[in-house]
Amino acid sequence: MTGQERIVDAHHHVWDLSVRDQNWITGDELAPLRRDFTLADLEPEARAVGVRATVLVQTVTVAEETPEFLALAQDSDFVAGVVGWCDLTAPDVAGTLAALRELPGGDRLVGIRHQVQGEPDPAWLLRPDVRRGLRAVADAGLVYDLVVQARQLPATVQTAALMPELTFVLDHAGKPPVAAGELRPWADDVRALAARPNTVCKLSGLVTEADPRSWTVRDLRPYADTVLDAFGPDRLMFGSDWPVCRLAATYEEVVDTARTLTDALSGDERARVLATTAERVYGL
Questions:
Q1: What is the pLDDT of residue 234?
Q2: Which of 44, 75, 106, 125 could form a disulfide with 159 if both were Cys (CB 3.0 to 4.6 A apart)?
Q3: For range 131-154, the mean pLDDT
Q4: Is the pLDDT score of 261 beyond 50?
Q5: Contact 62, 48 (CB under 8 A)
Q6: Sheet hosting strand 143-146, strand order edge to edge
Q7: Mean pLDDT of 136-147
Q8: CB count, 10 Å around CB of 155?
């Protein structure tokens, strides 16, 4: 049973299929996710293992989702922050962000994310229109969550170097090839990203990058050790990636795995990974 350390879950999702389809849920492998997942489903599981607050993260590139998430956060004493979505290539990103902050729950908006992993251009982040939008995110005092494939990490490194005024949070450790057991070039690119002081990493999503049916902590350890060494506990934060994690593990198993992967840290260092880094970076 998980110990009752204070935990902030810096990465989870919810969706209601009667409101909006999640069109990324396709094929037999993802079929268990084709149902509603709500805060009411999450909260008992999370509180049972010591989670005190969470960050709700966008799932689809639909403008209506972010206001819905902000409203959920306003009505919850559990969701401390929302990473939403807006079109970074639109002409008035600053106006869009300002309008979101005026909505119910707008004070819970802490960051923006786009499904960069789905963009065919590996250098999408370097496009001039995208960088203009990223500057607006920085000017608004928000962070930018990076959901990228390992092949997109080189452009991510360049973007972080070009925009030191913006804090970038790398979701799911940059999706390393855990199932293949390969470390490079992912590890080299992650270390290059971590060399930029305006970058942070989430210890999240590793169980679903491994073989979901047979993964072990030993499989994950080289990847967790890499990001721990590269970013350090001051720039590493735990995230469950619930409910996607359910394809490979229960919520409790994900939390226990994170605690095991950080077992070499001091108590204070692990507290940073499990809670205080997320609180500081997102201003929770």
A1: 97
A2: 125
A3: 96
A4: yes
A5: no
A6: 7-12, 51-57, 79-84, 109-114, 143-146, 168-170, 199-203, 236-238
A7: 98
A8: 20
Backbone angle region of 115, left / alpha / beta, with phi > 0 → left and psi within -120 to 50 → alpha? beta
Sorted by where each starts, the structural domains of the chain and their CATH numbers stand as 7-282 (3.20.20.140)
**pLDDT on residue 4:** 67
Alpha carbon distance 72, 109 (integer Å): 12
- 165-212 pLDDT per residue, tens: 999 999 999 999 999 999 999 999 999 999 999 999 999 999 999 998
Contacts of 67 (CB under 8 A, 6+ apart): 100, 103
Q: How far is CA 223 from the centre of its chain?
A: 16
Cis peptide preceding 32, ω within 30 of 0: no
